[in-house]
Amino acid sequence: MESPRDVGGETMEHGERPERAEPLTDAEREIIQNTWVHVYENCEDVGVSVLIRFFVNFPSAKQYFSQFQDMDDPEEMERSVQLRHHARQVMGAINKVVENLHDPEKVSSVLALVGKAHAVKHKVEPMYFKILCGVMLEVFSEDFPEFFTAEVQMVWTKLMGAVYWHVTGAYTEVGWVQLSSSAV
User: Where is each Globin domain found (predicted)?
Assistant: First the structure.
């Protein structure tokens, strides 16, 4: 099992959360938007790669997906209509964030909806968002090495830290109580 990349911020288990996400500069927003164009051209395939790696390396995350929680074979996962659908949803949410980087209120709103749905409706432990953000960074860097230089990876790490910060803020807002600290 791989360890996820550090995407910033403290886990909710430690009860510490930075006061705010580190804002992106104009240059960083431009870097993200310029690299995202290449990723999003293949959004379904990239999203599927992200989810397969996520579920293979962190199989406990599959507990939230009744349609494919018993799948262990990556090829079977790749063929799953439900997994492909969720991959498109994940990539679509990141696309909304990237498209609205100029509007912090919109980014906050998009990620609050994601966080609240996963906390209230799906009861997903928030640590899985941090893990998923790290897996996304790994897949993007490996699949698009010509665009994801060290500098670009640092900027994307900053963005993923902000994504995690906003999502966990929504968990706090709905009164999330941690179910277990040993899920992974």
Answer: 23-172
Task: Give the residue ranges of the chain where pLDDT is below 70.
Answer: 1-18, 178-184
* Whether pTM exceeds 0.90: no
Taking only the tens place, the pLDDT of each residue in 115-125 is: 999 999 999 99
User: Around Cβ 15, how many Cβ atoms within 10 Å?
Assistant: 8
- Residue 51 CA to residue 79 CA, distance in Å, equals 12
Q: Is residue 178 part of a domain?
A: no
* Residue 167 covered by a domain: yes
Q: Which domain holds residue 166?
A: 23-173
- Domain count within the chain: 1
Q: E strands of the chain, at which residues?
A: none
